[in-house]
Amino acid sequence: MNKTSVHGYAEDVTLSDDQPLLLLLDFDGTVCIGDGPVWAYAEAVLAELAEGDTSHETDAAAIREQLGAFLDGRVSGDYIDGYAAVAQMTGAHVSADTLQRAYRASRRALAEGTLDVHAPAGLADLLEDLSPRVERVLVTNAPIDGVAETLEAIGLTEHIDRIVSDARKPGSWTTLLPELRAGRDPQHCMAVGDIWANDLAGPHAAGCATALIDRFGTRAGTPDVSAPVFEELFDSIRSWAGSHESSPTVPAHVGATDDVPAPHPTEH
User: Fold this and answer.
1) Reported pTM
2) Which of 111, 143, 174 delimits the end of a domain?
3) Which one has a higher pLDDT value, 57 or 63?
């Protein structure tokens, strides 16, 4: 049997031509849900505003109201997610450096376990059912600090085979996706995420199946399937996996954490 060696990770991985299916999962807004991190990001931005110029107190109150209304679905907005909403709502008052520091602060809070987040109901069971014929890989622009701790807290650590942190999506897909596919047929790969441009456009262009969690009703892109919550995509993911029942099992690199270049902080 021919062997293919995949490089560029914390440890080299040798995969055979006969490989399991590949499920690529985003982190924020996909396997980890809850608005705690967004609010932590917003409050860190607003704290810097308050320190720099007290004249923004009224703006801070208005921003909190606008953000809450957007996250609660009471109003629509031209934002791809809550992080983008904060950045755009405060853009007239803050610098890119301020946004970066705020993002790092929110990640520290996530790592410390002080934010209210959870996994979609039933996701652990879905991922367990897919194993071992599907390799379950988390691909996130977030740093590993906060991601690893949160996966443990929300009960998903044992259901993720590999983590690619600091991924720099979407620009990295051109090199990262071929490494992750490692010769797999594109249709043997499915990407799931909540931001079309970051999570799905690259895999879609490569011919992979895509599933969009469209919480805010953006109707972005051309995913194979979309729904407002992850739970409504479970049957489609099972159907995709079931159409390749003859696929072999995940090779013995389970649990590896892969290092790629550091992200722009607000690309999560």
Assistant:
1) 0.84
2) 111
3) 63
